[in-house]
């Protein structure tokens, strides 16, 4: 079912926003946006495994597969020939793969483009860059607490978690931190609400395009050596075999902004929700601060926020599943992180878990290049919060809200202390 917009030539799906009704059989009719799945996805993953259906299937919106075993997800992630990154969006409004329309390299690229596109960005997320951003992150966390948590209550998600990653990635890109609300709005309209409001998502993409076109033009108008030391300048001045196209440059800016905000926002928020609802873990981190690195890894495993997609390039069979060219596979890395075949007591949060080979940051060639930045932001955000805020708990558990789909995390976590 398609609708071709004359002005753009883009073919939009007309079934993305349809109301398909409740799920009757998760093995053959799953729904990533099901309210119960958004809040308690681990229950569905367990049902799949115990029911002998480790790879579910649906024709809601389009033909889509959902593997939940760590081994299956890892195998698909490493098979870039059959399972392409041309379409990474879990529910896309387009008939065409997203990389054919709005490429966001390197995450939507396959080799060989992926190889050099990723290499360009590595210096911006290396140890030196993380070291430079650490005190900035700590200062930001303290400022947020001063602003929002002075009277015994606040929202750990809306007043704290959501601000840290957007301000950090804005500084790294070299765009004004004062535009934070605009950046966050784009994330909400594309990743969080894009499934239900395609027009809003398209408007947001257009606004981002104009915004970054302006930032790129501003730097190009400056003499080399006078440009700011930021990621946009680094990309403009990068030496490559062929000039980087504007489409590639803008797409990379989109990716870094959007991916740099929602994922870490979600994980910091999930960690603070966990500590508010598990006083024994909160107290243990207060008593044993040296546990923080292990705790961060367990927060990443247990509350992994990101589900990506892969595009089936040819009719093929994978572990008995007859996949067709054009099908989607939802790379539910969070499900793999709850696989009892790999993790002992997989559905239990163990704050000092020693063996923790999670793939919250993905697997294969697309493993998140910003993983060390995210780890630093999560660690610093939790350390400062526990140092500055006395023992806290939820002030209204019923007010907690979660978002699901591409990125899962809490958006309202009201606390009192």
Which labels suit this protein?
single chain, 417 residues, alpha+beta, five-stranded mixed β-sheet, 16 helices, 46% helix, globular, disordered N terminus
Taking the sheet with the most strands, its summary is: 5 strands, mixed
Question: Beta-strand percentage?
Answer: 5-15%
Average predicted confidence as pLDDT: 91
Question: What's the β-strand tally?
Answer: 14
- State the share of residues found in helices, binned by percent: 40-55%
The chain-level structural class is alpha+beta
Distance between the termini: 52 Å
Shape: globular
Order of helices and strands: EEHHEEHEHHHEHHHHHHHHEEEEHHEEEE
Structure description:
The protein has 417 residues and is α+β, with helices and mostly antiparallel strands. The protein contains 16 helices and 14 strands. The chain has helices spanning 35-39, 41-50, 70-78, 98-101, 113-121, 127-148, 157-161, 163-173, 180-192, 198-220, 231-236, 246-277, 279-287, 292-302, 333-336, 371-388; strands at 2-4, 11-13, 55-58, 64-67, 83-84, 153-155, 308-312, 316-318, 321-323, 328-331, 393-394, 401-403, 409-412, 414-416. α6 (127-148) crosses α8 and α9 crosses α10. The longest helix has 32 residues, at 246-277. The termini are far apart.
């Amino acid at each position: 079912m398609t609708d071709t917009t004359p002005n753009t030539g883009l073919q939009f799906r007309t079934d993305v926003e349809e109301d398909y009704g409740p799920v009757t059989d998760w093995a053959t009719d799953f729904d990533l946006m099901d309210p119960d799945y958004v809040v308690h996805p681990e229950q569905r993953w367990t049902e799949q495994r115990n029911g002998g259906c480790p790879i579910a299937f649906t024709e809601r919106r389009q033909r889509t597969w959902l593997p939940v075993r760590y081994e299956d997800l890892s195998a698909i992630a490493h098979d870039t020939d059959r399972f392409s990154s041309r379409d990474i969006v879990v529910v896309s409004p387009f008939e065409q793969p997203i990389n054919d329309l709005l490429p966001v390299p390197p995450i939507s690229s396959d080799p060989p483009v992926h190889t050099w596109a990723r290499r360009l960005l590595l210096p911006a997320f290396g140890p030196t860059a993380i070291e430079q951003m650490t005190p900035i992150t700590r200062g930001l966390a303290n400022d947020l607490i001063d602003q929002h948590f002075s009277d015994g209550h606040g929202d750990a998600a809306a007043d704290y978690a959501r601000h840290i990653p957007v301000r950090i990635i804005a500084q790294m890109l070299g765009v004004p931190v004062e535009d934070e609300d605009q950046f966050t709005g784009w994330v909400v309209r594309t990743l969080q609400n894009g499934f239900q409001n395609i027009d809003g998502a398209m408007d947001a993409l257009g606004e981002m395009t104009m915004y970054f076109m302006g930032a790129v033009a501003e730097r190009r108008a400056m003499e080399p050596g006078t440009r700011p030391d930021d990621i946009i300048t680094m990309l403009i001045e990068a030496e490559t075999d062929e000039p980087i196209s504007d489409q590639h440059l803008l797409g990379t800016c989109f990716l870094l902004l959007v991916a740099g905000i929602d994922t870490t926002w979600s994980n910091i928020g999930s960690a603070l929700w966990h500590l508010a609802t598990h006083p024994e873990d909160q107290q243990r981190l207060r008593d044993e601060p040296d546990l923080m690195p292990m705790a961060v890894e367990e927060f990443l495993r247990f509350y992994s926020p990101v589900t990506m997609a892969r595009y089936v390039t040819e009719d093929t069979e994978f572990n008995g599943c007859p996949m067709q060219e054009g099908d989607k596979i939802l790379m539910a890395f969070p499900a793999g992180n709850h696989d009892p075949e790999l993790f002992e007591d997989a559905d239990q949060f163990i704050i000092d878990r020693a063996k923790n080979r999670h793939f919250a940051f993905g697997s294969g060639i697309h493993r998140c290049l910003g993983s060390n930045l995210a780890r630093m932001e999560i660690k610093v955000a939790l350390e400062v919060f526990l140092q500055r805020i006395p023992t806290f708990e939820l002030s209204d558990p019923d007010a907690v809200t979660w978002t699901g789909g591409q990125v899962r995390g809490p958006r309202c976590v009201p606390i009192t202390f």
